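Structure first, sequence second, as always.
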């Protein structure tokens, strides 16, 4: 064990987390912060959720919380997990345990008091570190050297860890994309390839969660390339993956100062036509909003290539700001690095420089010219709007009157 590292984290000494640790570090029991929060502290990045492991049994955790006036929720009590809520901050408290039998996401567990055994049942070395309230780091699996090297490595035999839970294949790639550096661990990569067919046993919701998190990670480009080479993306998406456009999409987002967007990146990686978007929506069980957005991006995105400013304004008016930007960025990503980025940048920032006016003509303008209410009136309004767009959105009375007169004359001529 390597426990020479001591962390100076103020929230271990005071605040909600310190209160929970003090509650559980008493009368023969011990509690430590474990997992991602420790990893993130060592990497110098925000901790996010703080999970705590304890020797105390779940019922004892609940009993102590009740005495201290702390709300407890038995979120996974059959696996030893109780959530305590302190000052609106939730903390997952899990009793030390070991798996006596594993099958997929489910496992039979036995509670215990063995910190070493608990560490060895986890997935990756960098996720198995724990820290006590004094800031002492406990490392039973050589996680500290892997933290220093930013290496994501399975604990023990990779094949065995994966067989326990096939979701660990996706977690291997996602965690490397978020926290790793360089190429993925070779032994882990080969084990994932050997177990690739196990992905079919995973729920679409679980796959969706891991894929979308991976796509917004800093290392998404390199990891996506490794996954494509290993045949994982074909298995997940059921279609072709385009790693080049993904890299171009990420570059475009960064150039425009946009936040990383998982759905936009998914489109760049796996959507060439709307049929791709619909297949992904089913395979990943996307939300209705996500599916609709992906479908909108895939619809004739190529029409936004080679525009002039007048046509760009018409597209922005028709599509709305979000869909216009999404579809334009997909077209830009598909064009790759082979075109001048300046026009793409100009068109992408058009919504910040220009707001589309509201179509000023009304049904009454045409009824006054003798067009009766009904289907013909709707058709006339559509033709007039098209003419207004082609004329570059005029608002002066003379131009609008001319559009009305020409549209009425056209419809009258067609009806004769």
């Amino acid at each position: 064990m390597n426990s020479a590292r001591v962390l100076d984290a103020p929230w271990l000494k005071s605040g909600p987390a310190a209160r929970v640790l003090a509650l559980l570090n008493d009368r023969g029991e011990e509690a430590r912060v474990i997992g991602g929060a420790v990893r993130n502290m060592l990497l110098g990045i925000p901790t996010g959720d703080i999970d705590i492991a304890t020797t105390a049994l779940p019922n004892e955790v609940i009993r102590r919380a009740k005495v201290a006036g702390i709300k407890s929720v038995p979120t996974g009590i059959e696996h030893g997990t109780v959530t305590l809520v302190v000052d609106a901050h939730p903390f997952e408290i899990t009793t030390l345990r070991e798996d006596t039998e594993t099958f997929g996401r489910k496992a039979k567990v036995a509670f215990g008091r063995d910190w070493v055994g608990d560490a060895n049942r986890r997935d990756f070395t960098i996720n198995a570190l724990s820290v006590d309230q004094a800031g002492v780091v406990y490392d039973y699996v050589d996680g500290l050297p892997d933290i220093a090297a930013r290496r994501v490595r399975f604990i023990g035999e990779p094949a065995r860890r994966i067989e326990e839970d096939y979701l660990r294949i996706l977690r291997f790639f996602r965690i490397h994309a978020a926290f790793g550096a360089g190429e993925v661990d070779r032994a882990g990569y080969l084990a994932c390839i050997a177990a690739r067919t196990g992905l079919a046993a995973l729920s679409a919701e679980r796959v969706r969660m891991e894929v979308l998190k991976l796509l917004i990670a800093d290392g998404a480009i390199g990891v996506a390339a490794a996954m494509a080479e290993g045949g994982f993306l074909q298995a997940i998406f059921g279609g072709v993956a385009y790693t080049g456009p993904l890299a171009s999409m990420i570059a475009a987002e960064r150039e425009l100062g946009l936040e990383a967007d998982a759905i936009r990146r998914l489109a760049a990686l796996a959507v060439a036509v709307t049929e791709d978007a619909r297949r992904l929506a089913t395979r990943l069980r996307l939300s209705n909003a996500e599916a609709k957005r992906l479908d909108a991006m895939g619809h004739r995105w190529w029409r936004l290539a080679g525009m002039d400013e007048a046509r760009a304004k018409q597209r922005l008016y028709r599509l709305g700001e979000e869909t216009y930007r999404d579809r334009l960025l997909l077209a830009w990503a598909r064009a790759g690095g082979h075109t001048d980025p300046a026009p793409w940048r100009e068109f992408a920032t058009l919504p910040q420089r220009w707001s589309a006016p509201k179509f000023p003509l009304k049904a009454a303008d045409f009824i006054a010219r003798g067009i009766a209410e009904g289907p013909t009136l709707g058709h006339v309004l559509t033709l007039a709007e098209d003419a207004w767009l082609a004329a570059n959105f005029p608002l002066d009375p003379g131009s609008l009157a001319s559009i009305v007169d020409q549209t009425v004359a056209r419809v009258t001529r067609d009806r004769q």
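Margin note: The CA atoms of residues 320 and 359 lie 14 Å apart.
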